Amino acid sequence: MTSPSTLLAPAFDDVTRSEASLRRFLHGLPGVDQVGAEARAAALGTRSIKTSAKEFALDLAIRMVDLTTLEGQDTPGKVRALAAKAMRPDPADPSCPQVAAVCVYPDMVATARRTLGDSGVHVAAVATAFPSGRAALDIKLADTRDAVEAGAHEIDMVIDRGAFLAGHYLQVFEEIVAVREACRREDGESAHLKVIFETGELQTYDNVRRASWLAMMAGAHFIKTSTGKVQPAATLPVTLVMLEAVRDFREQTGTMVGVKPAGGIRTAKDAIKYLVMVNEVTGPDWLDPDWFRFGASTLLNDLLMQRTKMRTGRYSGPDYFTLD
Questions:
Q1: Which of 24, 124, 151, 181 is deepest in the core (most CB within 10 A)?
Q2: Are 61 and 275 in contact (CB under 8 A)?
Q3: Annotation marks residue 140 as catalytic
Q4: Which is catalytic among the residues 85, 140, 194, 224?
Q5: How far from the centroid of its chain's Cα atoms is residue 315's Cα?
Q6: Per-residue pLDDT tens digits for 174-193
Q7: In the annotation, is 260 catalytic?
């Protein structure tokens, strides 16, 4: 598949913040070969790893989980229980690593922060009128600032897919820039910004590639597939396109951007397929929770079951670990 970085280096330097220049740049990106992308993703998904490599992969996947609860029925008690599990996923095994973050609605950030304390597990908050992204900019920015002031380390924003699909690229670009600025705290530090595309609504791989470049150019720290509220959510081919984008962006700018597939990743087998893809497409630099995450709720339990099987030779029942 053709690399944008080999074709667009001069054009990238000329991009200015205008609708016309963004349109020229984004529509000048090489088109994604749908058949080729899906075939490569399928081929990478057939690879298997064994023994010590699998043990390493399971622990790495656990460390990459953003343990998530985003329901209208979320309560402080549920968030506290989730945060406790994030710190000690397997209470019977202190060697089990903790997860990367707990992802909640903004009004639950303070509860999560109090529970997690100085454990090192981050608090991620969805913001900007999640999951639709349909709200006035001042509301989105207030949503973001509230979460940051409550202690969120990371903000997961959603783009306005309607604006993107209508070709209003500058509007989407400027919203990302404004939300990133709203992530700045009074002490000068900044919450990291993950930009959610809702790839199931973007319709084509070409749009996924364009959204990836648009978000990275606007300053996203991470690009994320989905809210988990729309199907299809994360898929291997979509994630492949996004991984190619962050790889090419670093080649062109020297800046690394993370990737977070979210929604529908439920088994350790699935998670390992994604890790194989990361290693093959972007290389080992991205095999780190700072640069790759899984947005998930049920995935963690299967990772723990498989980890126990590797250590003891037998499976625990699905109810051995807490249900989320």
A1: 124
A2: yes
A3: no
A4: 224
A5: 29
A6: 999 999 999 998 888 899 99
A7: yes
Looking at the DSSP assignment, which residues form a beta bridge with residue 157?
Answer: 127, 195
Q: Give me the residues paired with residue 109 across strands.
A: none
Distance between CA atoms of 136 and 143, rounded to whole angstroms?
A: 11
54 catalytic per annotation: no
Identity of the amino acid at 6: T
pLDDT tens by residue, 224-272? 999 999 999 999 999 999 999 999 999 999 999 999 999 999 999 999 9
Question: Residues 6 or more apart from 201 whose CB is under 8 A from it?
Answer: 161, 165, 230
Domain boundaries, the chain: 4-312
CATH architecture of 4-312: Alpha-Beta Barrel (3.20)
| CB 158, CB 128: distance < 8 Å | yes
- Catalytically annotated residue among 160, 260, 270, 273: 260
Q: H/E/C letters for each residue in the chain?
A: CCCHHHHCHHHHHHCCCCHHHHHHHHHHCCCCCHHHHHHHHHHHCCCCCCHHHHHHHHHHHHHCEEEECCCCCCCHHHHHHHHHHHHCCCCCCCCCCCCCEEEECHHHHHHHHHHHCCCCCEEEEEECCCCCCCCCHHHHHHHHHHHHHCCCCEEEEECCHHHHHCCCHHHHHHHHHHHHHHCECCCCCECEEEEECCHHHHCCHHHHHHHHHHHHHHCCCEEECCCCCCCCCCCHHHHHHHHHHHHHHHHHHCCCCEEECECCCCCHHHHHHHHHHHHHHCCHHHCCCCCECEEECCHHHHHHHHHHHHHHCCCCCCCCCCCC
Q: Are 301 and 320 in contact (CB under 8 A)?
A: no
